[in-house]
Amino acid sequence: MTSSPAKTVGVLGGMGPEATLDFFAKVLAATPADRDQDHIHLIIDNNPAVPNRNEAVAGTGPSPAPVLTEMATRLEHAGADFLVMVCNAAHAFQDAIEDAVSCPFVSIIEETCEAVVERLQPETSVKVGVLASSGCLDAKLYQEALATRNVQAIIPEGSTRDSFMNILYRIKAGDKNVRDDMKTLAEHLINQGAQTIIAGCTEVPLILQQDDISVPLINSTDVLVARTVTYATGEAKLAQRPQKTSTKLVSHTAGGGA
After folding, report:
1. Three-state secondary-structure class, residue 206
2. Do 188 and 160 form a contact (C-beta atoms < 8 A)?
3. What are the angstrom distances between the C-alpha of 87 and each of 177, 203, 208, 247?
4. Would you tell me which of 20, 109, 197, 230 could form a disulfide with 13, CB atoms 3.0–4.6 Å apart?
5. Comparing C-alpha atoms, which of 216, 38, 210 is closest to residue 115?
6. What are the beta bridge partners of residue 46?
7. Is 151 exposed, middle or buried (0-12, 13-18, 19+ CB in 10 A)?
8. How would you class 254 by CB atoms within 10 Å of its CB: exposed for 0-12, middle for 13-18, buried for 19 or more?
9. Residues 103, 113, 136, 201: which is the catalytic one?
């Protein structure tokens, strides 16, 4: 690269902060740059005060939509040409974000599902395991987006889902001694017929790597990083396709949370 990228990226982050840092570090590593000026211009709103997405989807906590729309508007006003969000479950409130801004919103859900199709090239129905939070699963973000691509989602249920959420909050609290537990959950989905695993929560890649499981791993953070770089550098044009992925919950109840 010999000149600054044409597009500025607005990043809705802080959900959680370490996942946002992971995204930023991977964008830096993925950008072909020989000097500071070759890197992508990112405006990151690392806002850990966004209300809990899982509780909001479950109806037990306030909606994050007002905070997310404020973040999106702020980023657009700051000069963002397009937006990305480093949280899968928060895409349940994508409609509210898109209603608040005029710039494109790149969905981690849609981009990850496109990556699944590119990887598997399914001619008949295939099964993909989705390691994702309760909010993401209850909003059916991956289930519906995969179904439109002739892919069946296998998801954690019952005590398996409870175990995933326990691991997720331990990671958020800084406990990285949960790798074996996450591997066990992934293998549980594989034993149910999953031919590929989607890391559908941005905390999962902080723990789980390809060498940990016996089938291909498609990491939603890595997919978003790759798409962000290609869109920002002009290697690919922002697709004029629907980014809305499933049932969205856009209650505008104000409130706090973690």
Report:
1. helix
2. yes
3. 22, 9, 17, 16
4. 20
5. 216
6. 13
7. buried
8. exposed
9. 201
In a structure prediction context, what are the per-residue pLDDT tens digits for the chain, which is 258 residues long? 444 457 999 999 999 999 999 999 999 999 999 999 999 999 999 999 999 999 999 999 999 999 999 999 999 999 999 999 999 999 999 999 999 999 999 999 999 999 999 998 877 789 999 999 999 999 999 999 999 999 999 999 999 999 999 999 999 999 999 999 999 999 999 999 999 999 999 999 999 999 999 999 999 999 999 999 999 999 999 865 344 444 344 443 333 333
CA angle 161, 52, 113 (to 5 degrees): 60
136 among known catalytic residues: no
Q: How many residues does the chain have?
A: 258
Q: Which of 87, 103, 113, 136 is catalytic?
A: 87
- CA-closest candidate to residue 151, choices 183, 119, 187: 119
Annotate 183-201 with three-state secondary structure.
HHHHHHHHHCCCCEEEECC
Question: For this structure, is 201 an active site residue?
Answer: yes
pTM for this prediction: 0.90
How does DSSP classify residue 172? H
Torsion angle defined by CA atoms of residues 225, 227, 232 and 233, in that order, rounded to the nearest 10 degrees? 100
Distance (Å, whole) CA 183 – CA 144: 25
